[in-house]
Amino acid sequence: MAGVGKLMKQMKKMQQQMDTLQEELAAMELPVSSGGGAINITVNGQGEFKALKLDPEFLKEDAAFVEETLLAAIQEAAAKAKEVNEAEMGKLTQGIQMPGLM
Questions:
Q1: What is the Cα–Cα distance from 55 to 38, expressed in whole angstroms?
Q2: Which of 6, 45, 46, 67 could share a disulfide with 28, CB 3.0–4.6 Å?
Q3: Domain range 28-92, CATH architecture
Q4: Better pLDDT: 63 or 92
Q5: Is 50 exceeded by the pLDDT of residue 102?
Q6: What is the 3-state secondary structure (H, E, C) of the chain?
Q7: pLDDT for the residue 94
């Protein structure tokens, strides 16, 4: 049963690393700019939206255009957060071999 003890230690270490990574992702600021700088969104590495700034001149545009551009910027910010999150998680779990899962 020495293998089980070693596995438990590895799992505890990985959980600690995961907790640290989650804190780092929460503290990350990922800026996204769209519409030639008319829309600026900040999202963290966990996908939480932290800030939204709109150029007042941009709001004078056609409502449908504003909505479309804003939606595209939000989607881009969400995709960027997901990409960063997956890349960082991949680094953490890289090379981990769990018996029975491979």
A1: 5
A2: 45
A3: 2-Layer Sandwich (3.30)
A4: 63
A5: no
A6: CHHHHHHHHHHHHHHHHHHHHHHHHHHCCEEEEECCCCEEEEECCCCCEEEEEECCCHHHCCHHHHHHHHHHHHHHHHHHHHHHHHHHHHHHHCCCCCCCCC
A7: 78
